[in-house]
Design a protein that fits this description.
Number of strands: 7
Radius of gyration: 15 Å
Shape: globular
Strand content: 25-35%
Distance between the termini: 25 Å
Largest sheet: 7 strands, mixed
Helix content: 25-40%
Length: about 170
């Protein structure tokens, strides 16, 4: 999660959104810096665990965690200054819809950072066949991010080639 936090560079002025919050570990790190936040996950179990791991900001009404689809975010357009997604994009059925939704809910200048699985042979052998992960080349990912309306897009594969780090901002 460190790479996401470093790239987002959150401040106390940020309104943070996390898509696919899982158990809420990254969310907890982000909410230690952001002013307000919201998160979504498809799994009811993960939503409950994320609430448990972020109880204080939830109780303080600083954070909303809900169950729902990454492909149809429930928040108003131009709401968030920063958004992240970690290790879930490979499960998304309609990736272009998710990226368009993230762009929609970001304010102009809002930042997006995502870490997902790369197209490396190692990932394909160990995870792709078993879990049917959807992975994309850096070129395809860049194209999807730009088509969704993000600018200053960067897509890089990590040193060991198993993760893809993507970021951009809403124009």
């Amino acid at each position: 999660f460190k790479v996401i936090m470093d790239k987002l560079n959150l401040t106390s002025d940020d309104i943070y959104c996390e898509v696919g919050c899982g158990g809420g570990i990254l969310l907890n790190m982000a909410m230690s810096l952001a002013k307000q936040g919201a998160a979504i996950d498809l799994s009811p179990d993960m939503v409950q665990l994320s609430i448990k791991n972020n109880q204080q900001p939830v109780d303080d009404e600083k954070l909303e965690i809900i169950r729902g689809s990454a492909e149809k975010l429930p928040w108003a357009s131009n709401t968030f200054t920063a958004c992240a997604s970690a290790n879930m994009f490979f499960f998304v059925e309609k990736p272009e819809a998710m990226l368009s939704e993230i762009t929609r809910v970001l304010k102009p200048g809002g930042r997006f950072v995502m870490v997902t699985a790369s197209t490396s042979l190692l990932v394909k052998i160990f995870f792709g066949l078993l879990y049917k992960l959807k992975v994309y080349s850096n070129q395809k990912m860049r194209s999807m991010l730009e088509t969704a309306g993000l600018a200053n897009v960067s897509v890089k594969t990590t040193k060991f080639g198993t993760l893809q780090v993507c970021n951009g901002e809403k124009a």
